[in-house]
Design a protein that fits this description.
mainly alpha, 18 helices, 69% helix, 0% strand
């Protein structure tokens, strides 16, 4: 308890110092056209003046965020505490996720052992009782002291609230709470659209947790509930705005990518160089690219909805149209849930070096390009590519670790140690 209090206190102090310094509010790695605090305050000012913030090309937040901050005000000193409290609440929810997952893992492996599903050689790979304490603490540390998360909170980006909704969704997922999962997922989808893909792992989890209920009935009920909540949010938004103009300014903006402000994603550079008559084709290609991963991953890992959800959160952080460090920070903060896969991951050192290098070099390249005029967009985009590649390496390494561990749990270690007539050993491949 005392250690948790110290951790939360340090997290608050660090965030307040960063907010007071104003180091991240205008950073392109942190603030995007979709989550920028300065754009939100401008929209609130227009709304309070009786003008529609969606009639221009600056404001792209949701009407619900517009209404809430119109009531709460635009004071940075006051709002910064709201964002910090949001981060602390997200951390608390993630620690609860860690507790539930650790306990479920112990129960599942005990059942598998009693059923003879685990090979005797796999005993060293089994989780221990101490994991119920270490995993929640690691989740708290990895979230509250994550520099990407600190930067996102200090920049007062709306990604803080998206992460809060996703943390609520993950807790609902691991506890099989259908209503709360649909509410939190609809709020996250309403905020940034891409989390709608997480409806697939939710359906898989609910089907597994209710074996006596028809899978079709469970899936249809979940989809109906999710769409009902999402439709209600859209109707409330139309009531706030008085029309449906927000649809184009929020979701049309996400899908069509009209503003090419540099960020840590891959969209802006490609569409800057793109000829206009190719634009529609490549917009569809880039947006559908993310959707294509859902089916094969769901087929390969149908019994691991938490791993599937984490993987999708990581892919969204890479391939969404306007990513920020807050998106990647949440994905990295979820990795302690899979600490048991670390011995089977091969590229952790390379990935760590890539992320560290790009985190340091991105502000330097931006300074040289924008202010010193001694570099160009190619330098900054090269860093973006390495940054995105590191995340892809991490995701594939995580999935390979799961496959390899599952193989060892079922077949033991000795199978891969046997040599054939030519002296060759079997090679485990991810397929």
């Amino acid at each position: 308890m005392a250690s948790d209090l110290v951790l939360y206190s340090v997290a608050v102090i660090v965030r307040q110092v960063a907010v007071a310094g104003g180091w991240f509010s205008s950073r392109p790695e942190v603030s995007t056209p979709l989550n920028s605090w300065s754009r939100l305050t401008e929209g609130v000012h227009l709304h309070q003046a009786g003008l529609s913030p969606y009639s221009g090309v600056v404001f792209h937040e949701t009407p619900l965020a517009l209404a809430v901050f119109s009531v709460l005000g635009k004071s940075t000193a006051y709002a910064s505490w709201l964002f910090i409290m949001g981060d602390l609440l997200t951390c608390f929810l993630l620690s609860r996720v860690g507790e539930v997952v650790a306990k479920q893992r112990l129960v599942d492996q005990e059942m598998a052992n009693s059923s003879g599903l685990h090979h005797p050689e796999a005993r060293p790979l089994l989780a221990t009782l101490s994991s119920t304490l270490t995993i929640p603490r690691l989740l708290s540390l990895s979230y509250l002291l994550n520099p990407y998360i600190i930067a996102s909170c200090a920049g007062m980006t709306s990604t803080v609230w998206t992460n809060l909704m996703l943390a609520t969704f993950l807790l609902s997922l691991v506890t099989s709470h259908q209503v709360l999962a649909c509410i939190s997922l609809s709020l996250a989808t309403y905020q940034s659209l891409y989390p709608a893909l997480l409806i697939v792992p939710l359906c898989l989890k609910l089907v597994q947790s209710s074996p006596t209920v028809s899978p079709t009935s469970t899936v249809m009920t979940t989809l109906a509930m999710f769409l009902t909540f999402l439709t209600s949010l859209l109707l409330l938004s139309a009531e706030i705005c008085g029309d449906w103009s927000f649809l184009h300014s929020v979701y049309g903006f996400i899908l069509t990518v009209p503003e090419l402000t540099p960020n840590m994603g891959i969209f802006w550079y490609f569409f800057t160089e793109m000829f206009d008559h190719f634009r529609v084709f490549f917009v569809w290609t880039f947006q559908l690219n993310l959707l294509l991963y859902v089916a094969p991953l769901s087929i390969k890992f149908p019994t691991h909805p938490l791993l599937l959800s984490t993987t999708m959160i990581g892919l969204i952080a890479v391939f969404k149209s306007y990513p920020s460090t807050g998106d990647v920070g949440l994905f990295l903060s979820l990795l302690p849930l899979f600490s048991h896969l670390l011995p089977f991951m091969k590229q952790t050192f390379i990935i760590l070096c890539m992320l560290l290098a790009t985190t340091v070099l991105a502000p330097i390249a931006w300074q040289l390009w924008i202010y010193n005029n001694s570099a160009n967009a190619n330098y900054y985009f090269a860093i973006n590519l390495v940054y995105s590649t590191a995340q892809i390496f991490l995701i594939t390494d995580l999935l390979f670790g799961q496959v390899k561990r599952q193989f060892y749990m079922t077949h033991g270690f000795s199978l891969l140690e046997k040599e054939d007539k030519e002296g060759q050993r079997p090679i485990l491949q991810l397929k």
